[in-house]
Design goal:
- The complex is a heterodimer of chains A (345) and B (367).
- Chain A is an alpha/beta fold and 345 residues long.
- Chain A folds into 2 domains: 199 residues, Periplasmic binding protein-like II (D-Maltodextrin-Binding Protein, domain 2, 3-Layer(aba) Sandwich), CATH 3.40.190.10; 99 residues, D-Maltodextrin-Binding Protein, domain 2 (3-Layer(aba) Sandwich), CATH 3.40.190.10.
- Chain A is built from 13 helices and 14 strands.
- In chain A, the strands form 5 sheets. Chain A has a 5-stranded mixed sheet with strand order 10-9-11-8-12, sandwiched between helices. In chain A, strands 4-1-5 form a 3-stranded parallel sheet. In chain A, strands 2-3 form a two-stranded antiparallel sheet.
- In chain A, helix 4 crosses helix 10 and helix 4 runs antiparallel to helix 12.
- Chain B is mostly helical and 367 residues long.
- In chain B, 69% of the residues lie in helices and 0% in strands.
- The chains are: A alpha/beta (345), B mainly alpha (367).
- Chains A and B meet through helix 2, strand 2, strand 4 and helix 5 of A and helix 4, helix 9 and helix 14 of B.
- Chain A: It comes from Rhodoblastus acidophilus.
- Chain A: One of its GO terms (biological process) is amino acid transport.
- Chain A: This is General L-amino acid transport system substrate-binding protein.
- Chain A: Belongs to the bacterial solute-binding protein 3 family.
- Chain A: Keywords: Signal, Transport.
Chain lengths: 345, 367
C-alpha cells in the first residue's frame, strides 16, 4: 500500500477541500440500491491498473480480484455479472468519487484505516484480502524471515509508508540493515535485480507482480512473513445501511460458499443438497435474500457468476494465475487463515 | 574642394564562394567539418548495430505469452504489441469498425482540407467542423434508432481517446483562439477584459490543474445526474487550454499585419467582417504558421495528461498493459515505450512536414 498511501498523503489538502465541499453542499441522496436498480447498472470504482486486482485484458475487458467483487454485487442485484460500469480511479480521486456519488462502490485494494472511516464519511464493508509489507529475496540465499536480513541492504521506494515501516521494523527488532532509497518502484526493482540490494520491499501483493518483471522470476521468492498490516476492503458511503449490508453480505456469501464447497459448477445442483447449512445459504427452504433487498437465490446468482472466494482468488491471484500468490492469511479459518464469515441463517 | 570625393573606383573584390556546395564539400569541406562528420558517423556505427539487433534481429515477433520474450538475449517483444494492439488502439471499444470508419472520414476531410489542389474547400471546412462532430458522435457513441448500439464512454480508450482529444482540441483551438485574440483587441472594454481574463487565467494554471478541477470539482458541485461525462470533462479542459494558448499566437500574427492594410480595406469600403476575413486574418495566420503548428504538436502530446483523470489514452493504455502478468518481463516496458514513441513521432512529423510545405508556399506567394 506504500505508494498509494504516499500519493494520498500528498493530496491531503486537496482532499480536505473536496470534503468541505461535500459537507457544505450535501446533496440529499436517494437509496443507493434504488439508484442502481433504476440506472440498470452498478458503477464500481476500481484500480487504474494493478496486476491481479484490476486490469483490462487484451480486449479491454476488466479482470481481477477487486473487479470480480464488483461483478459479484452486480450478479446479486441483476443476476447478470456484466451489468457493471467500471470507473478506473487513481489513489487521489478514489474517495471523492465515492463521496460525490459518482460511484456506488469502491473496490480498489484500499487499506482499511481508522482515519478514513472516522473522518472521511466512508464505511469499509469487511476485509477481503489481507496484505502486508514483505520482502523479495533470492531463493539461493535461503532466508526464512525478515530477521535474517541483518546487515543486508534493502531497496525501497522513497517517500512511502513502506520506507517508514521498514525503519520501524528494524528499529524494533534491534537489527541494522542498509536502506537504499529509489524514487520509483521500477528503479528499486532494477537495482535489486542488478545485485545492488539483497532484498526489495513493498506490499506483498505487489511483490508477486513485480517478480514477474525480472529476467528469471523463479530464482526469487517472496518471504511469507509480513511486517505491516494492510487489510484491503471494499468501501461504501456512510448513511446507507441497506447498501452497506448488501455489499457486506455479498462478501460473506462468497466466503461461506467456499467453506461449504459451493462452486460455480455445482451451485445449482447443491440446492437439492441435504446439508442444512448449504440449503440455507442457497435459499432452498427460507428466503434470506429479502432482508437485503435481493432475491431468494441471491447466493446462487453470485456464485454461478464469479465462483466462490477460493475460485476468485485462484483465478486472479493464486495457482490459476501467473502471480501464484499463496493463500497464507487469506485462507479459510479452518485452514489456518483469517477468513471467518458469519453464517447465513 | 573635391578632397572628399573619390575620383577613381576601388578595385573589385573577388566574388564570395558559391552558395551551392556539393554534399562532399559540405560534409568534408575542411578539417572542422570532416572531424564533426566523422565523429558522428563513428557514433552512429557504434550505436546502430545494437539498436537494429534489439529492434529487429533479436526481436520476438510471434509468441502466445511472455515466456519467449523473457529468454535471455531476447530483444523487443513485438508479439506483445500485436496481442495488445486492440487495447492500444480501441481500449475496450467493442466495435472497431465504427472507430475505423470515423477516423477514415476524418482522414479524408483533413487531406481534402489541406491538399494544395483540393477543390470546393468550403464543403470540406463545413464537413470538418460541423459534419464530423455529428457523424463521429453518432458512429462512436451510437444511435439505437440507426441500429448502432450505444457504447458508453467508459469503454473508449487507447489511440481512439488520444485522437479524439487532439482533434477536438485542434478543432476548438483555432476558432476559439481567433475569437479570443480579436476580443482582446476589441474597442469594447468589457469584452476586452473578459477575453484577457480568460486567456491569462487559463494560461496561468497548469493543464493538470485544469483537468483535475474539471474532473473532481464539477461532479461535487453538480447533482450526480448532471455531471458531464468522464470523457467530456477533460475535453472541455483541453479545448479551453488550447484556445487560450492559440489566442496569444494569433495575437502575434495580428500585430504583424501593418495598420495600413486595415485602413486600405476600409478605404475600399469593405465591412469590418470582410476586412477581417479577406485582408487581416489571412495575413495574420499566414505569418504565425510555425507557432500554430507548434501549438498543435504540443497539444497532441499534452493529451497524454488525461491519464491522470483515469482515462485510458494511448500512452496510458501501454503503461497499463505492461502490468499484465501474462506478458510481464524485462523487455515489455521498453518495447511498449518504443511503440508509443513511434506513434507520437509519426503524427508530429506529419504535422510539421505539412507546416513546412505550407510555409514555403506562402513565402513564394509573398515574393
Amino acid at each position: 500500500m506504500g505508494v498509494r498511501m504516499g500519493l494520498f498523503v500528498k493530496s491531503q489538502t486537496f482532499g480536505a477541500l473536496a470534503l468541505a465541499a461535500v459537507l457544505t453542499a450535501t446533496v440529499s441522496r436517494a437509496d443507493t440500491l434504488d439508484q442502481v436498480l433504476s440506472r440498470g447498472v452498478l458503477v464500481c470504482g476500481v484500480n487504474i491498473g494493478l496486476a491481479g486486482f484490476g486490469l483490462p485484458d487484451d480486449r479491454g475487458f476488466w479482470r481481477g480480484f477487486d473487479v470480480d467483487y464488483c461483478r459479484a454485487v452486480a450478479a446479486a442485484i441483476f443476476d447478470d455479472p456484466q451489468k457493471v460500469r467500471f470507473t478506473p480511479l487513481s489513489g487521489k480521486d478514489r474517495f471523492t468519487a465515492l463521496q460525490s456519488g459518482e460511484i456506488d462502490l469502491l473496490s480498489r485494494n484500499t487499506t482499511w484505516t481508522q482515519s478514513r472511516e472516522a473522518a472521511q464519511g466512508l464505511l469499509f464493508t469487511g476485509i477481503n484480502y489481507y496484505d502486508g509489507q514483505s520482502f523479495m529475496v533470492r531463493k539461493a540465499r535461503k532466508l526464512q524471515s525478515p530477521r535474517d536480513l541483518k546487515g543486508a541492504s534493502i531497496c525501497v521506494q522513497q517517500g512511502t509508508t513502506t520506507e517508514l515501516n521498514l525503519a520501524d521494523y528494524f528499529h524494533k527488532a534491534g537489527i541494522s540493515a542498509e536502506t537504499v532509497v529509489f524514487s520509483g518502484g521500477d528503479e528499486a526493482l532494477k537495482a535489486y535485480e542488478s545485485g545492488r540490494c539483497d532484498a526489495y520491499t513493498t506490499d506483498g501483493s505487489a511483490l508477486y507482480a513485480q517478480r514477474l518483471k525480472l529476467a528469471a522470476p523463479d530464482d526469487h521468492e517472496v518471504l511469507a512473513e509480513t511486517i505491516s498490516k494492510e487489510p484491503f476492503s471494499p468501501v461504501v458511503r456512510q448513511g446507507d445501511d441497506r447498501w452497506f449490508n448488501l455489499v457486506k453480505w455479498t462478501q460473506f456469501a462468497l466466503l461461506d460458499a467456499e467453506e461449504l464447497g459451493v462452486t460455480a459448477a455445482n451451485a445449482d445442483a447443491l440446492r437439492q443438497s441435504d446439508n442444512p447449512e448449504i440449503r440455507r445459504l442457497l435459499g432452498a427452504d427460507n428466503d434470506f435474500g429479502a432482508g437485503l433487498g435481493l432475491s431468494r437465490d441471491w447466493v446462487v446468482r453470485i456464485v454461478k457468476a464469479v465462483g466462490n472466494y477460493g475460485e476468485i482468488f485462484s483465478r486472479n491471484l493464486g495457482d490459476g494465475s501467473p502471480l501464484k500468490i499463496p493463500r497464507g492469511l487469506n485462507a479459510q479459518w479452518r485452514d489456518g487463515g483469517l477468513h471467518y464469515a458469519p453464517p447465513v441463517r | 574642394m573635391t578632397d572628399f570625393l573619390r575620383s577613381d573606383f576601388l578595385p573589385a573584390l573577388p566574388p564570395p564562394p558559391s552558395r551551392e556546395q556539393s554534399w562532399r564539400e559540405k560534409l568534408f569541406g575542411d578539417a572542422r567539418a570532416a572531424a564533426i562528420t566523422l565523429s558522428l558517423l563513428v557514433g552512429a556505427a557504434l550505436l546502430l548495430p545494437s539498436v537494429v539487433r534489439y529492434l529487429f534481429i533479436d526481436a520476438v515477433w510471434r509468441a502466445p505469452d511472455g515466456a519467449l520474450c523473457r529468454a535471455p538475449g531476447a530483444g523487443a517483444c513485438w508479439a506483445y504489441v500485436a496481442a495488445k494492439a486492440p487495447f492500444f488502439f480501441y481500449g475496450a471499444y467493442p466495435y472497431p469498425w465504427r472507430v475505423n470508419l470515423t477516423f477514415a472520414l476524418a482522414g479524408v476531410l483533413i487531406v481534402w482540407l489541406l491538399h494544395p489542389r483540393g477543390r470546393a474547400k468550403g464543403y470540406a471546412l463545413a464537413g470538418f467542423f460541423l459534419g464530423l462532430p455529428v457523424a463521429g458522435f453518432v458512429l462512436l457513441y451510437g444511435a439505437p434508432a440507426l441500429g448502432l448500439p450505444v457504447v458508453g464512454t467508459n469503454l473508449w480508450g487507447g489511440a481512439l481517446v488520444s485522437l479524439i482529444m487532439a482533434l477536438a482540441g485542434i478543432a476548438a483551438a483555432l476558432p476559439g483562439g481567433v475569437l479570443l485574440a480579436l476580443g482582446r483587441r476589441s474597442d469594447l472594454p468589457a469584452l476586452r477584459w473578459l477575453c484577457v481574463g480568460i486567456i491569462e487565467f487559463v494560461r496561468g494554471a497548469p493543464l493538470i490543474a485544469v483537468l483535475f478541477m474539471a474532473n473532481v470539482l464539477l461532479p461535487l458541485f453538480l447533482p450526480p445526474d448532471w455531471a458531464p461525462d468522464r470523457l467530456l470533462r477533460p475535453l472541455f479542459g483541453i479545448a479551453l487550454f488550447a484556445s487560450a494558448y492559440m489566442a496569444e499566437v494569433v495575437r502575434g500574427g495580428l500585430a504583424a499585419v501593418p495598420r495600413g492594410q486595415d485602413e486600405a480595406a476600409q478605404a475600399l469600403g469593405l465591412s469590418r467582417v470582410k476586412t477581417l476575413r479577406l485582408i487581416v486574418l489571412p495575413q495574420a495566420l499566414g505569418a504565425v504558421i510555425p507557432g500554430i503548428v507548434n501549438n498543435f504538436v504540443a497539444l497532441f502530446k499534452d493529451t497524454t495528461l488525461v491519464a491522470i483523470v483515469g482515462l485510458f489514452d494511448f500512452l496510458h493504455a501501454i503503461e497499463i498493459a505492461r502490468l499484465d502478468p501474462v506478458w510481464a518481463g524485462p523487455q515489455i516496458a521498453l518495447t511498449g515505450y518504443i511503440f508509443a514513441a513511434a506513434f507520437y513521432l509519426g503524427f508530429c512529423l506529419a504535422m510539421s512536414a505539412y507546416a513546412r510545405r505550407l510555409e514555403k508556399k506562402l513565402a513564394a506567394a509573398r515574393r
